Amino acid sequence: MGSSVSHAAAPPPTAVGLAVALPPKQDEKAEPKNVDWLNLPCPVPFEEIQREASMSLKPELFEGLKFDFTKGLNQRFSLSHSIFMGSMELPSQSSDTFKVPTAHYEFGANFLDPKLMLVGRVLTDGRLNARVKCDLTDNLTLKINAQLTNEPHFSQGMFNFDYKGTDYRTQFQIGNNAFYGANYIQSISPHLSLGTEIFWLGHQRKSGIGFAARYNTDKIVATGQVASTGTVALSYVQKVSEKVSLASDFMYNHLTQDVTSSFGYDYILRQCRLRGKLDSNGVVAAFLEERLNMGVNFILSAEVDHRKKDYKFGFGMTVGE
Amino acid sequence: MTSRASLKGKGKAGKGSKGSEEGSSAAKCVKEWSTWAMKKAKVITHYGFIPLIIVIGMNSEPKPQLYQLLSPV
């Protein structure tokens, strides 16, 4: 079909000389590709819609000493030992921060196969963190996430069934406390994808619906999320160069009248990764991961909350891949 | 031992009442046994998940040696 069209559009012999005389037009940018509306790319999963902003603005800040050792027995099987000594913050209703000094040893085992992933972590107080990811077919994935404790009624578990289509993804969730959720995300252009989610909490008879949109090109990622629980979350990430990206985030909760806005940077350099952020709540945080040697990483974490006068500094080492 | 005896007692009582009232007590029976099954499944997962990963990992190719589980090298 294509060849007959080009034959019809072939220029007459006289114009060929003129076309040779004039230099051909050359665009520096790539020519705008014709969008193939039937072959749109698959969007990112719904829970990862704000992935770039979360990775830059929410590193795992901690206070105290952290030491992780991962030992690989096999390409797929590895054991991990982790020690943490420091303060953990307990959520409190008042504006005071409530810190509890804790120390624990955590043993973990990972089995990572392209089709089956099993990750288990057990702490000294008996808590178990289990994650299972299993590819049932090419497009259907089952994920199980569970935290089991020795105390009764504190355990949590969640089953997720993910289906990946050509240009859409859908997920169905079942959790304990009779939690049911579903979400769906669809690409509507090579750069824009829209998604929606609903959830229902059985025990508290609460339900909610939310909408999300994500626009990404090579250089920028902009997302917006609105939920019927009264939250609005917007984020914008700009990739300034191969090594630097800047991110900003805005969160508004209508019910608690909470507004938070943060700006951050993410430097990915050859030997280190430095992330920092500045918050509208008066929080300044930074997180540095420095590669000392092959497989040995040194970690520094700092979080300074000027409003609550809470200063958290942590250091640690990670050995092993 | 005592828990097993009490469970047997509960089951007999449940079967006895099933004859008199159908429907609702059958649903109660199912709910009771499913709660019992969930509790047992939780205990089994709590103790058996990490050993399960270790067993699956030790049997995957290339098979690691047993001493590698404990030595820090």
Automatic annotation (TrEMBL), chain A:
Keywords: Acetylation, Ion transport, Membrane, Mitochondrion, Mitochondrion outer membrane, Porin, Protein transport, Receptor, Transmembrane, Transmembrane beta strand, Transport. CDD domains: Porin3_Tom40. GO terms for cellular component: mitochondrial outer membrane; pore complex. Pfam families: Porin_3. Belongs to the Tom40 family. The keyword Membrane applies. One of its GO terms (molecular function) is porin activity. One of its GO terms (biological process) is monoatomic ion transport. It is found in: Mitochondrion outer membrane. Gene3D superfamilies: Porin. Central component of the receptor complex responsible for the recognition and translocation of cytosolically synthesized mitochondrial preproteins. Together with TOM22 functions as the transit peptide receptor at the surface of the mitochondrion outer membrane and facilitates the movement of preproteins into the translocation pore. Directly involved in the pore formation. It is a multi-pass membrane protein. This is Mitochondrial import receptor subunit TOM40. PANTHER family: MITOCHONDRIAL IMPORT RECEPTOR SUBUNIT TOM40 (PTHR10802).
UniProtKB/TrEMBL annotation, chain B:
GO terms for cellular component: mitochondrial outer membrane translocase complex. Residues 1-27 are annotated as: Disordered. Keywords: Membrane, Mitochondrion, Mitochondrion outer membrane, Protein transport, Receptor, Transmembrane, Transmembrane helix, Transport. It is found in: Mitochondrion outer membrane. Its main location: mitochondrion. InterPro entries: Tom7. Pfam families: Tom7. It is a single-pass membrane protein. Belongs to the Tom7 family. This is Mitochondrial import receptor subunit. It comes from Musa troglodytarum.
